């Protein structure tokens, strides 16, 4: 029976209930999971899968886990996922500890992590609420350590089976090898390849099994350290083989050997089940509001291959300040910020920063950014009708592309040419106009979303950009 701190759980659930208005039974489903789910089900929860399994709204479920983490019900972990074998390359409790350059010890490959597809955010029940076996990985069985603690279920082979399940089926030997100890792996080798690797070190072996070779006793001594194996490759006959694995390192090494079939020397191409990516989290306003202390390492950024950026500005704001006074104008601008943030959140985006009277927002999908731009324009138009003598004149631009997520002025921000172009596209807009780049206009769902509006194509020369770029001016409804 799971040991649960009832008093702490009840207090935190009460605080979670009052954090905002939730859909019916949402918090109760989370409570039920904390109380009755297995240890494995409470370790590195994928909130998108949780939402699908429980028939919950996906966006609200992400927000739920963020609030639950802020209250201490869960711990949030950033994990680097190998795109080749879907193992956990590394995991971090804080964004500032995440390194963009990483190496998969199973594949012996180096990667530069991107927020889009290699960085996942998961949630594990806080040990103060309920302690599970995965809070103490050093006590796990070697099977649980390799196939559950050091792997993910998100990487799928073409038939939809998690690749980690295939690895379990192909496993012929697993062991923890303590420093200074030797462990024997006795395997009946079949035609193909015996591939050995470790989650804890770069030690690995690859032995080709040739059934044409004469059989006989095969005993191979291998030295393992944290960097390599000696020997690390060879050709052996089919049949019984004993690998005597000696750990000469100063720490325990987990080691496993897989039997790969003939003609297979690497994992099949994987596709990934949906997970909460770093890019999506950084475009979630609740994350930016609740976890303001989360920053990226100051000396490096994290790449994002595709992000939609929206910039706004107010036309004639200087004259507005002069006409109605600083205090009145400031209050008006703050109200305009609140409305733009509400619209941004409604369309699954996040406010990155405000610059004077301007806003920079980020969205996962260009279509969401364009819908937000249209709603922002409508929202400010409605706002102006209530106070025609203090009308605000909004200008909006949207662009998409690659960027680098960085920390600037102790705040998560984006840097790069995509950011520059997005700001320049906004600079093309006049009163109540929206300009979008060709890259945005061509994105899924954008043209359909603009079908009811007057759109005309133009060519613009943007400062800092060599070639002229096609842009689209979005006018009023037709």
TrEMBL record:
- Domain (Guanylate cyclase) ranges: 308-426
Pfam families the record matches: DUF5939, Guanylate_cyc
Which GO-annotated molecular functions does the record name? adenylate cyclase activity
InterPro entries, per the entry = A/G_cyclase (IPR001054), Adenylyl/Guanylyl_Cyclase_3/4 (IPR050697), GUC-dom-containing_N (IPR045983), Nucleotide_cyclase (IPR029787)
Q: Report the superkingdom from the record.
A: Bacteria
Query: What's an example GO BP annotation here?
Result: intracellular signal transduction
Q: Which Gene3D superfamilies match?
A: Nucleotide cyclase (3.30.70.1230)
What is the protein name stated in its UniProt record?
A: Adenylate cyclase, class 3
From which source organism is this entry? Rhizobium mongolense subsp. loessense
């Amino acid at each position: 029976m799971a040991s649960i701190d009832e008093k702490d759980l009840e207090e935190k659930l009460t605080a979670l209930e009052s954090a905002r208005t939730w859909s019916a039974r949402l918090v109760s489903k989370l409570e039920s999971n904390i109380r009755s789910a297995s240890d494995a089900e409470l370790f590195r929860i994928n909130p998108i899968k949780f939402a699908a399994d429980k028939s919950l709204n996906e966006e609200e479920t992400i927000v739920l886990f963020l609030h639950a983490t802020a209250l201490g019900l869960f711990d949030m972990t950033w994990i680097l996922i190998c795109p080749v074998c879907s193992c956990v390359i590394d995991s971090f409790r804080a964004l500032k500890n995440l390194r963009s350059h990483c190496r998969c010890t199973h594949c012996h490959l180096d990667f530069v992590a991107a927020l889009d597809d290699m960085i996942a955010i998961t949630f594990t029940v806080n040990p103060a609420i309920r302690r599970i076996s995965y809070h103490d990985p050093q006590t796990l069985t070697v099977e649980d350590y390799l196939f559950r603690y050091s792997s993910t279920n998100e990487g799928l082979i073409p038939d939809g089976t998690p690749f980690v399940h295939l690895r379990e089926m192909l496993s012929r030997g697993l062991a923890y090898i303590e420093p200074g100890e030797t462990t024997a792996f006795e395997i009946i080798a079949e035609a193909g390849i015996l591939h050995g690797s470790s989650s804890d070190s770069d030690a690995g072996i690859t032995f080709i099994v040739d059934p044409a070779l004469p059989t006989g006793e095969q005993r191979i001594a291998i030295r393992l350290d944290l960097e390599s194996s000696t020997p690390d490759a060879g050709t052996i006959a089919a049949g019984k083989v004993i690998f005597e694995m000696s750990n000469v390192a100063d720490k325990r090494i987990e080691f496993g050997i897989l039997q790969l079939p003939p003609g297979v020397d690497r994992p099949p191409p994987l596709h990934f089940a949906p997970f909460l990516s770093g890019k999506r989290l950084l475009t979630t306003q609740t994350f930016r509001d609740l976890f303001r202390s989360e920053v990226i390492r100051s000396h490096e950024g994290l790449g994002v291959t595709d992000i939609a950026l929206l910039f706004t500005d107010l036309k004639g704001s200087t004259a507005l300040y002069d006409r109605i006074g600083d205090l009145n104008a400031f209050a008006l601008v703050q109200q305009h910020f609140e409305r733009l943030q509400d619209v941004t959140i409604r369309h699954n985006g996040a406010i990155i920063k405000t610059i004077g009277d301007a806003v920079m927002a980020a969205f996962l999908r260009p279509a969401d950014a364009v819908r937000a731009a249209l709603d922002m324009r409508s929202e400010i138009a409605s706002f102006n009708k209530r106070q025609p003598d203090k009308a605000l004149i909004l200008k909006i631009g949207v662009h998409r592309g690659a960027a680098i997520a960085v920390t600037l002025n102790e705040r998560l921000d984006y840097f790069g040419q995509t950011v520059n172009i997005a700001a320049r596209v906004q600079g093309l807009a006049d009163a109540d106009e929206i300009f979008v780049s060709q890259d945005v206009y061509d994105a899924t769902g954008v043209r359909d979303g603009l079908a009811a509006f007057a759109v005309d194509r133009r060519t613009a020369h943007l400062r800092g950009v060599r070639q002229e770029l096609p842009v689209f001016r979005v006018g009023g409804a037709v």
